[in-house]
């Protein structure tokens, strides 16, 4: 929608000027890629060369092409796909459950001062208690199966979402609320049309933090007590001295994290076109 | 779309209005036995030193604050709380950042239960009135301060209130924009025939816009003074009588 303000002027430029502008833009894009990712490429290149030339012990740091080849065979043969599937399932269920509970509860708690105040100390205590420290407790309660793994991830992801939502609701500009009230908006309308949209950006901060936490806890849980999953593969490959496979699994985890983050960023940009 | 206003409504009668606040256990009296009649279609400015209660008076008129005693009659009916016949324009534009200009202007009508289509149709009329038609699809963050305040004005006008309550609406704007907005408010008030109650600390603004200027004293036992500004519109700030009114008002505040 906002483009309409800018586009007509650009359209009226003569063709040659636009071509110049396009060329310039292409060069800018290349420059931007170099600026953003240049150092990353350099790091990978250095790794590859150092490992190939023997500056690094290739049995600990195998050349990246071998890691890539292992990753590719693992995916193509389907061996790693099973691990990805089970890992995504664990993190996904836990994350969705945390979203499903954390956002509604946070919206509710943020609006009622008494409840928020009563629950805040216990929330702070739970938040500060490392979920990993509680994992043995969850194993005792829920066994070594899927339930304890999902629950420990759920536990760790719930608090960032819950606290971000509460914070978002509490921080809503009271002047906007008063403005809506001055037009005769009901409490329900104010919630739906002022508090809820104003809370979306802070909620997304919580969601992205939680997604990162979910993967962190996933790996820890899978390393401790699993026989499947990407986190298990990292540990297992190391035990069996399949170092390329170990790195392949590590990269896979990094990709999963990046993918989760960009999905959330994309969603946020769609929902918050008004900011930025 | 043409919008017709039928009768000159929007008469306000304030009787024995008192309001105090509890601050750290102390009672702070802000308004004491205020009596005031505002006729339908009048433009009244309220000036006063800070602490004189001018904003509180406006907020009571809006229904955002309940008086301790006394009351307000609008067109002969006692009012309690908020009402559709009144609209407030705040010092800050208070636009919802996630709505476009059109969405913001239609917002007031929409929360009053008017369908989005109808609300937006009517909103477009008032967006044109404040000269922002080209910016209907813009987000608030893309607007200048003056433009944003005009959106706030259009939003208030869209509900077609009988009484427009303005709480230092131009206080945050730069001097040049302020002068333009004075002209614009005069034009809007002339076209819409609404009762306008304007709280301001800008004496020139009060003289430029108001039929009468009410001076709220800081001393609660003193009674408010009213100065009638019987100048033809549009007004000329450099005209001798305008200047005299300014001197008179300044003298009220002990200034020269």
From TrEMBL, chain A:
One of its GO terms (cellular component) is plasma membrane. Pfam families: BPD_transp_1. Gene3D superfamilies: MetI-like (1.10.3720.10). Its main location: membrane. It is found in: Cell membrane. GO terms for biological process: alkanesulfonate transmembrane transport. It is a multi-pass membrane protein. InterPro entries: MetI-like (IPR000515), MetI-like_sf (IPR035906). It comes from the Bacteria. Residues 84-264 form the ABC transmembrane type-1 domain. The keyword Transmembrane helix applies. PROSITE patterns: ABC_TM1. Keywords: Cell membrane, Membrane, Transmembrane, Transmembrane helix, Transport. CDD domains: TM_PBP2. Probably part of an ABC transporter complex. Probably responsible for the translocation of the substrate across the membrane. This is ABC transporter permease.
TrEMBL record, chain B:
GO terms for molecular function: ATP binding; ATP hydrolysis activity. SUPFAM superfamilies: P-loop containing nucleoside triphosphate hydrolases (SSF52540). InterPro entries: AAA+_ATPase (IPR003593), ABC_transporter-like_ATP-bd (IPR003439), ABC_transporter-like_CS (IPR017871), ABC_transporter_ATP-bind (IPR050166), P-loop_NTPase (IPR027417). Pfam families: ABC_tran (PF00005). It comes from the Bacteria. Residues 12-243 form the ABC transporter domain. Keywords: ATP-binding, Nucleotide-binding, Transport. Belongs to the ABC transporter superfamily. This is ABC transporter ATP-binding protein.
């Amino acid at each position: 929608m906002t483009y309409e303000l800018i586009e007509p002027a650009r359209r009226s430029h003569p063709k040659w000027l636009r071509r110049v502008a396009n060329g310039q833009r292409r060069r800018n894009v290349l420059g931007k890629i170099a600026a953003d990712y240049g150092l990353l490429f350099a790091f990978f290149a250095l790794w590859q060369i150092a490992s190939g030339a023997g500056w690094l012990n290739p049995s600990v740091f195998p050349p990246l092409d071998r890691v890539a080849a292992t990753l590719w065979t693992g995916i193509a043969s389907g061996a790693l796909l099973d691990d990805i599937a089970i890992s995504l399932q664990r993190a996904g269920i836990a994350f969705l459950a945390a979203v499903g509970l954390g956002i509604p509860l946070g919206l509710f708690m943020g609006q009622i001062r008494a409840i928020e105040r009563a629950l805040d100390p216990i929330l702070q205590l739970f938040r500060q208690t490392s979920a990993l420290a509680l994992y043995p407790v969850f194993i005792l309660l829920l066994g070594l199966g899927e339930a304890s793994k999902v629950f420990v991830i759920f536990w760790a992801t719930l608090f960032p979402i819950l606290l971000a939502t509460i914070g978002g609701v509490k921080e809503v500009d009271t002047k906007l609320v008063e403005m809506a009230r001055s037009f005769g908006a009901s409490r329900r309308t104010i919630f739906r049309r002022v508090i809820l949209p104003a809370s979306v950006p802070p909620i997304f901060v919580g969601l992205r933090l939680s997604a990162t936490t979910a993967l962190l806890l996933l790996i820890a849980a899978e390393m401790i007590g699993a026989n499947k999953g990407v986190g298990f593969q990292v540990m297992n490959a190391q035990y069996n001295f399949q170092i390329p496979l170990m790195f392949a699994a590590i990269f896979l985890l990094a990709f999963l994290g990046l993918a989760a983050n960009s999905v959330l960023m994309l969603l946020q940009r769609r929902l918050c076109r008004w900011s930025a | 779309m043409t919008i017709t206003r039928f009768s000159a409504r929007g008469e306000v009668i304030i009787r024995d209005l008192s309001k105090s606040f509890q601050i750290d256990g102390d009672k702070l009296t802000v308004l004491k036995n205020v009596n005031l009649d505002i006729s339908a279609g009048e433009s009244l400015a309220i000036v006063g030193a800070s602490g004189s209660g001018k904003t509180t008076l406006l907020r009571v008129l809006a229904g955002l604050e309940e008086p301790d005693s006394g009351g307000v009659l609008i067109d002969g009916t006692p009012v309690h709380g908020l009402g559709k016949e009144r609209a407030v324009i705040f010092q800050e534009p208070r636009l919802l950042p996630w709505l476009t200009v059109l969405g913001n202007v239609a917002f007031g009508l929409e929360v009053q239960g008017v369908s989005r289509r109808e609300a937006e149709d009517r909103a477009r009329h008032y967006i044109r009135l404040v000269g922002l038609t080209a910016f209907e699809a813009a987000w608030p963050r893309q607007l200048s301060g003056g433009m944003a305040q005009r959106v706030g004005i259009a939003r208030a006008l869209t509900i077609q209130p009988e009484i427009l309550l303005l709480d230092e609406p131009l206080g945050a704007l730069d001097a040049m924009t302020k002068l333009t907005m004075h002209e614009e408010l005069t034009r809007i008030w002339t076209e819409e025939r609404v009762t306008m109650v304007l709280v301001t600390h800008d004496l020139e603004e009060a003289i430029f816009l108001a039929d009468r200027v009410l001076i709220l004293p800081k001393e609660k036992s003193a009674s408010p003074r009213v100065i009638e500004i019987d100048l033809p519109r549009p007004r000329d700030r450099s005209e001798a009588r305008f200047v005299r009114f300014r001197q008179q008002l300044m003298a009220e505040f002990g200034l020269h």
